[in-house]
Amino acid sequence: MVSSLSSFTTIDGSDNRFFYVRTIGENNVIFSGSDSVESGADEPNESEIQITSTEANSFRPRKDKVSGKVAFLKTVGADTQLFVMKFDGTEEVQLTDVTPVTGFRQSEIDFTWYNNGNRILYPSLNKLYSISAFGTGNSVVYEAPLGVLITEVDANESNGLVAIKTNDASGYNARISIINPNTGIESLVVIENVNGALGGVDYSIDASKILYTRDVSGFEDPDYSCLLYTSPS
After folding, report:
1. Which residue of 2, 51, 143, 169 sits 20 to 30 Å from the alpha carbon of 194, by its own alpha carbon?
2. Residue 39 to residues 42, 43, 116, 154, 187: CA-CA distances in angstroms?
3. What is the DSSP string of 104-130?
4. Which residues, at least 6 apart from 77, have a Cβ–Cβ distance to it below 8 Å?
5. 209-212: long-range contacts at Cβ-Cβ below 8 A with a sequence spacing of 24 or more?
6. What is the spatial distance between Cα 29 and Cα 45, in angstroms, rounded to a whole number?
7. What residues contact residue 195 under an 8 Å CB cut-off, 6+ apart?
8. Long-range CB contact pairs, 9-17, < 8 A, 24+
9. Is the distance from CB of 57 to CB of 74 less than 8 angstroms?
10. Based on the number of CB atoms within 10 Å of its own CB, is 180 exposed (0-12), middle (13-18) or buried (19 or more)?
11. Going residue by residue through the chain (233 aa), what tens digit of pLDDT does each one get?
């Protein structure tokens, strides 16, 4: 009996461009993928791989090309901790412990790579922390007034400054400003004293603009169930 010979290879996902989250059961699970091989192809992405376990709640993946790592958030007990791993999901390391990532709604909270992939900035209540990509040297670089929660942060490597969004415990009284994490000094207020929600803070690569969303209707409710609309900075 004669059969044809064939071969196959497996992928490790190291070249995948995108990292995203799917809900499987009760947990968020991180996947990676890339563009379809053929232009306009309707087939599923054959490069897609699952890189975190379905047994854990993992979310908010942030890729850094310089360090070759993905930072992400993961629920550990009652806390949300910061982790890093390689692009293929191996060599997972927990960075935070005593000072977890916390603030207004874990679904809203964000962090950012900083200093060319050597450090990560993350919020914990009213303080912004800097920790190395190896989990060492955790320190406070900025502190907002008591009762103010730091929810979003995005760094700019060209000028070393950081955009942050703060809000109160209800998600409102939001404010976006620029700070210097080396001095802890606020250098510019982008927007404040407006009704409604702000979000989606992104510092442009040339440091000339801040992209964010704003609910221009000014609507507010106790459940923070408003819609966000794009607004110019």
Report:
1. 143
2. 9, 11, 33, 33, 46
3. S-TTT---EEETTTTEEEEEETTEEEE
4. none
5. 209/233, 210/163, 210/176, 210/178, 212/165, 212/176
6. 17
7. 172, 218, 219, 220
8. 11/47, 11/49, 12/49, 12/88, 13/47, 13/49, 13/51, 13/87, 13/88, 13/89, 14/86, 14/87, 14/88, 15/47, 16/47, 16/48, 16/49, 16/87
9. yes
10. middle
11. 566 666 556 666 677 888 999 999 999 999 998 876 666 656 666 688 999 999 999 999 999 999 999 999 999 999 999 999 999 999 999 999 999 999 998 889 999 999 999 999 999 999 999 999 999 999 999 999 999 999 999 999 999 999 999 999 999 999 999 999 999 999 999 999 999 999 999 999 999 999 999 988 888 888 776 444 443 33
Q: How far apart are CA 9 and CA 56, in angstroms?
A: 29
Instruction: Count the Cβ atoms, other than its own, within 10 Å of residue 183.
Output: 10
Cα(18)–Cα(36) distance, rounded to whole angstroms? 12
Please list, in sequence order, all residues whose beta carbon lies within 8 angstroms of the beta carbon of residue 132, skipping any fewer than 6 positions away: 95, 118, 119, 120
How long, in residues, is the chain? 233
